[in-house]
Design goal:
The complex is a heterodimer of chains A (about 325) and B (about 350). Chain A is built from twelve helices and 14 strands. Chain A is an alpha/beta fold and about 325 residues long. Chain A has two domains: about 180 residues, Rossmann fold; about 130 residues, Rossmann fold (3-Layer(aba) Sandwich), CATH 3.40.50. Chain A is globular, with a radius of gyration of 19 Å. Chain B has about 350 residues and is of the alpha/beta class. Chain B has one domain: Rossmann fold. Chain B is built from ten helices and six strands, in the order H-H-E-H-H-E-H-E-H-E-E-H-E-H-H-H. In chain B, strand 5, helix 7 and strand 6 form a beta-alpha-beta unit. The longest helix of chain B has 26 residues. The radius of gyration of chain B is 20 Å and the shape is globular. The chains are: A alpha/beta (about 325), B alpha/beta (about 350). Chains A and B meet through helix 3, helix 4 and helix 5 of A and strand 2, helix 5 and helix 6 of B.
Chain lengths: ~325, ~350
């Protein structure tokens, strides 16, 4: 068992897969020589060389196009989109090309590739470099969407994504890069579509993703001291979505809260609320409550950014008030 | 304000250059020429039949035809190796035929039948046949130029000498993906061949009205350190020579090429467009500059008998007849097909 940062886990996860399979290649802006603007990919160029680790121009369309064409013809590319906000300049490739090729060709053309990207706020980067866009991604049929919250999950879900025959968008949370966690020795391979129950409590179920997971856990700690016991579930994978784990938990706790960093409208939690309302309505003892970033662009001033994102105080206060 | 300042539909006309008669003596094997003749007829006759099927109300949705533009796809279809990759636009019926895909699954696809090339799920704009190296028809302008780079990169890493060809229209040269793709290919010396079929109209607007250079693809090539070749896209021999050179260059690690083929569509942009914005003298001049009668005469001049050419035309016609009848009588896709092939496991499940 070793302690790794979430940042180090990125390179560890990519390296594990590149060592295993020579068809895995990696491309993106500043990912090789510079080791990534967040230093997440340091050492990969040195180990795997410039044929397999490609420093690209600032050309997000060319990057995703190259990844798609390579995936269609036998390679297993991992492409980096540096900030997830930049998906807006290459969304055609995600929404129209990569996601739809298999269906439009009735199974003839698949795109086994991974697009990983720095997602989320907390770094005071302002409205164009801080967004949580996982809900954009899950709105497109044909792509899988994962967002790990720990170094171990990052390595395991990276491996599962690379080995998956379908395209996967893997969102790393930028504010989690310095966080640390225990990582077992040896190969780590996780499974897409599995949520994880991190904490068991009988009073309510809280579902969270990425940076919101440690914040939900902190809120649960505080409320436990007041006698309120929460189940906290790390959703981890939005597509496929592990609704069974969530529904099972709600059947036991009878209350549900979502903690979402994405702006409120059509956030991922809304879909979970919809499913639980339709399928577990009679299990519920009270309204489902969504705790989200408001429907606003993010500001760069630290106090304003902090006000926008759900934090442990707001999560705990909202849950306490709702549970009465 | 458009560059010319001309009111819509009264722009300066662009006439074809006369066919280069010296190409008759180009070093191209006669059997290759016969094959290009056959492919041009396969495309023309298929497109004509598809048009008839539109008029019969059997083809729904939209469709973009390539009548008048057959020479370029036919020449590349002959010049490429079966394992090479080609990426088409939504005006891709001809390019699909040129790679050897038979007409029946193409017609069936446009009719929305289960026997369609992609099971009725793609339609006119998404014809694909991986077994023929035809890696797809792409309906969002520009994307497939970047995707072709990926196929060329993959070939290089896998140590094969396959090349990737991306066909696109003049309009695509003004979208960012074109510039990203050409820069990328040139920088990494990928074996991508960028073939602009310049038919003078981006959709309903003359390309000259929205582009500050005369040759929208070729004139951009120097910005990426590339030479470009401009050819008469209605002369299969001219295109074949350019294709052969570009393919050889790509196969041997010489990097990408840009070919701009001057051509003209006999019809409008799509099924809904009669093309009335095109001045009559221009349309008439280009109808006279038809690739197929010219090539017929060239083969006669080269000593091929009229009976051989007529036999090819009749053979193609019979094949199209059979294909159309089979496609018409084929069943619709089963309802279950709605739910298949979102994922590699064949299904569409997104939750447990």
């Amino acid at each position: 068992m070793a302690e790794l940062t979430y940042r180090e886990a990125v390179a560890a996860g990519i390296a594990q897969e590149m060592r295993r399979d020579p068809s895995v290649v990696f491309l993106g802006e500043d990912v090789g020589g510079a080791g990534g603007v967040f230093k997440t990919t340091a050492g990969l160029l040195e180990e795997f060389g410039p044929d397999r680790v490609v420093d690209t121009p600032i050309s997000e369309q060319a990057i995703l196009g190259a990844a798609m064409g390579a995936a269609m013809t036998g390679l297993r590319p991992i492409a980096e989109i540096m900030f997830s906000d930049f998906f807006a300049v290459c969304w055609d490739f995600v929404a129209n090309e990569i996601a739809k090729s298999r269906y439009m060709t009735d199974g003839m053309v698949g795109c086994p590739l991974v697009i990983r990207s720095g997602n989320g706020a907390g770094l005071r980067f302002g409205a164009q470099h801080s967004q949580s866009i996982e809900n954009w991604a899950m709105a497109v049929p044909g792509v899988k969407v994962v967002a790990p919250s720990t170094p171990k999950d990052l390595i395991g879900l990276m491996a599962a994504s690379v080995r998956d025959p379908d395209p996967v968008l893997l969102f790393e949370h930028k504010a989690l890069y310095p966080s640390k966690g225990e990582v077992p020795e040896g190969e780590i391979v996780d499974e897409l579509g599995k949520a994880r129950v991190l904490r068991d409590g009988s009073d309510a179920t809280v579902v969270a993703l990425a940076l919101m997971v440690p914040r939900a856990l902190e809120a649960a700690d505080r409320l436990a001291a007041e006698g309120i016991h929460l189940t906290v579930i790390d959703v981890r994978s939005l597509v496929p979505l592990d609704t069974a784990t969530i529904l099972r938990s709600v059947a036991g706790t009878s209350r549900l809260f979502t903690v979402e960093e994405n702006p409120r409208l059509c956030g991922w939690g809304a879909e979970i609320c919809s499913i639980v309302s339709e399928e577990a309505f009679w299990d519920l003892d009270g309204p489902i409550v969504r705790i989200t970033t408001p429907h606003l662009p993010l500001a760069s001033a630290p106090n304003l950014e902090d006000l926008a994102l759900p934090d442990a105080d707001r999560i705990a206060a909202t849950i306490k008030a709702a549970l009465g | 304000m458009p560059l010319s300042g001309a009111p819509y539909g009264e722009h300066q006309i662009v006439l074809p250059e006369p066919f280069d008669e010296s190409l008759k003596d180009a070093p191209i094997d006669l059997e290759i020429r016969i094959e290009m003749f056959r492919k041009q007829h396969q495309i023309r006759q298929l497109e004509k039949r598809l048009y008839t099927l539109f008029l019969e109300g059997l083809v729904r949705g939209t469709s973009h035809q390539s009548m008048g533009m057959e020479a370029t796809s036919a020449a590349f279809g002959v010049a490429l190796r079966p394992d090479d990759y080609s990426f088409n636009t939504y005006r891709g019926h001809g390019h699909t035929v040129a790679r050897g895909v038979p007409p029946e699954p193409i017609i069936a696809e446009l009719l929305g039948k289960a026997t369609g090339l992609v099971g009725g799920k793609g339609g006119s704009m998404h014809l694909t046949s991986v077994e023929h190296g035809m890696m797809g028809s792409y309906a969002i302008i520009g994307a497939h130029l970047c995707i072709a780079n990926g196929a060329a990169w993959s070939a290089k890493l896998r140590g094969t000498d396959q090349v990737a060809v991306a066909f696109f229209g003049d309009g695509a040269t003004n979208i960012g993906a074109f510039h990203e793709a050409v820069n990328y290919a040139a920088n990494y010396r990928l074996g991508t061949i960028f073939v602009c079929e310049n038919n003078l109209y981006m959709e309903y607007t003359p390309i000259a009205e929205v582009t500050p250079v005369r040759h929208p693809a070729a004139d951009r090539a120097p910005a990426y350190g590339l030479d470009a070749t401009i050819v008469d896209g209605n002369d299969a021999d001219a295109v074949y020579l350019a294709a052969r050179a570009a393919i050889e260059r790509a196969r041997t690690g010489g990097g990408p090429s840009i070919i701009e083929a001057k051509t003209y569509r006999h019809g409008g942009h799509s099924r809904a467009d009669p093309g009335k914005y095109r001045p009559d003298p221009e349309v008439e001049a280009w109808l006279d500059h038809d690739p197929i009668p010219m090539y017929h005469q060239r083969l006669l001049d080269l000593g091929v008998g009229e009976d051989r050419l007529t036999a090819i035309i009749q053979q193609v016609a019979a094949e199209i007849d059979r294909a159309a009848e089979a496609a018409k009588s084929a069943p619709e896709p089963p309802a279950e097909a709605l739910w298949t092939n979102v994922w590699a496991n064949g299904g569409s499940q997104w939750r447990n």
